[in-house]
Design a protein that fits this description.
The protein is of the alpha/beta class. Helix content is 39%, strand content 15%. It is built from 15 helices and 13 strands. The strands form 3 sheets. The protein has a 6-stranded mixed beta sheet with strand order 4-5-13-10-11-12, with helices on both faces. A 4-stranded parallel beta sheet has the order 8-7-6-9. Strands 2-1-3 form a 3-stranded antiparallel beta sheet. α9 crosses α10 and α13 packs across α14. The longest helix is centred in the C-terminal third of the chain and has 19 residues. The termini are far apart.
């Protein structure tokens, strides 16, 4: 089955053969993968997907892979959890958590996009992969390069969280810490990509890389019994994930995998210290004004997002909205999810939970409608943001009498707080 036509410019529609390129040479618009959807109708069915492996590759027919999967065989198909405790806390009927904080192998949704990009890099015969990253992508590219026996160069801002630096170095890449923001790192990588024949997953391989995010949307629909939810709240950094979740829903509808109309509204979540996409939504303008990031949510700290315009268009087209979260609200969001559902998410997840709470309180998300909150990374990578909020409750000598006294003090303290 020939499923790929090649690449297509998202602005002027000009077509290109499949190649490691990402920009239209005529209008400088971004390129995206162009599928033969007519050839997929009736071939990609609910039954054919259900017969696939318990990973993102059950949707391989809808991903830009033409040969065998090279890396990341166990990526995806992460839990979609009915969050009853969180729903009670927020006064809602139906909240779900799509939990990519347990995505294999590096605990973030980036494993989905990297598995596609690295497989595609091997199809094109590259021996080196690279990326500009705010942390999670660095972890994933280094891990999948190791699995694929490829060399890797990872470029990060020098002030990245130590946990994410360590979780990259362990895979033995060449790690380059750049004294600058992510946007400055990304500009440097664009110049390097022009000079060296490397597969930069989020530069010259971006059309293929970004398609991996569709699997996140596919899974939400399948795990809800082939029905889309009424609301999805998505964290935004570069803006690609939110556009690909929307694309996944539209592709499933086009292929007859979803019954009835689609009334899903897609909402964008960003930190107040770096929220240019949400600012566009609030001001109802398609003009993105870059910002210099200043937030604890470093994985979302992209001040000039590559897909910002398309993220804005996605929200507008679906009838969604957007909201910012302050740093204290991000921490409260992390603690709320942990306290109610036993899920430890990173700061990006705190942004999404805090945004959902705000949109519910504002009435943007009605309390009797279904909501999926996208949790895209694990909290063990960013514990730094919680050190000042959490401490050990009791420290005692190893005797029962010491514990008895401490327990009495705790109960007394609790009773005083209640009064």
């Amino acid at each position: 089955m020939e499923k790929l036509k090649g690449l297509k410019c998202r602005e002027c529609g000009r077509r290109y053969p499949s190649a490691p390129v990402h920009v239209c040479e005529f209008c400088f618009g971004p390129l995206e993968v162009d599928y033969q959807y007519e050839a997929l109708k009736g071939v990609v069915t609910r039954a054919s997907i259900a017969a696939g492996p318990p990973s993102m590759w059950r949707y391989q027919a809808l991903l830009p892979i033409e040969g065998d999967v090279a890396v990341g065989h166990h990526v995806g198909f992460t839990p979609l959890i009915r969050a009853n405790n969180l729903a009670d806390e927020l006064g809602c009927r139906e909240i779900w958590i799509k939990n990519d904080s347990v995505c294999h192998p590096t605990w973030s949704f980036k494993d989905r996009v990297v598995a596609v990009a690295v497989t595609k890099a091997k199809e094109f015969g590259f021996d080196t992969v690279a990326c500009a990253s705010t942390g999670n992508l660095a972890n994933s590219v280094a891990a999948h390069a190791a699995e694929g026996r490829l060399k890797s160069y990872i470029f990060i801002p020098a002030d990245l969280e130590p946990g994410k630096v360590l979780a990259t170095l362990v895979y033995n890449p060449t790690l380059v810490a750049v004294e600058g923001t992510y946007d400055e790192v990304n500009r440097l990588c664009s110049e390097i990509a022009d000079k060296y024949r490397w597969a930069f997953v989020n530069v010259n391989f971006r059309p293929y890389y970004s398609e991996g995010s569709k699997s996140y949307g596919f899974e939400i629909i399948e795990q809800l019994g082939w029905r889309p939810p009424q609301h999805i709240v998505v964290p935004c950094a570069g803006g690609s994930l939110i556009t690909k979740i929307w694309k996944a829903i539209k592709e499933m509808k086009m292929l007859g995998l979803i019954d009835g109309p689609v009334d899903t509204r897609i909402h964008a979540a960003q930190a107040l210290g770096c929220g240019p996409i949400v600012t566009m939504i609030k001001n109802d303008t398609d003009v993105l004004v870059p910002v210099r990031p200043n937030t604890i949510a470093k994985s979302l700290a992209i001040g000039n997002p590559a897909d910002g315009y398309y993220a804005y268009r996605t929200v507008k087209e679906s009838g969604g909205h957007g909201e910012h979260a302050t740093d204290p609200e991000i921490v409260e969001g992390m603690l709320l999810l942990a306290r109610t559902e036993g899920i430890f998410t990173e700061t990006a997840g705190g942004v999404t939970v805090a945004t959902t709470k705000k949109l519910i309180e504002q009435g943007v998300i009605p309390r009797d409608e279904s909501v999926v909150i996208c949790i895209t990374g694990n909290g063990l990578k960013t514990p730094d943001s919680l050190y000042e909020r959490l401490e050990t409750h009791v420290k005692i000598r190893p005797t029962l009498s010491a514990f008895d006294r401490a327990l009495t003090d705790l109960k007394s303290h609790g009773a005083q707080e209640e009064h």
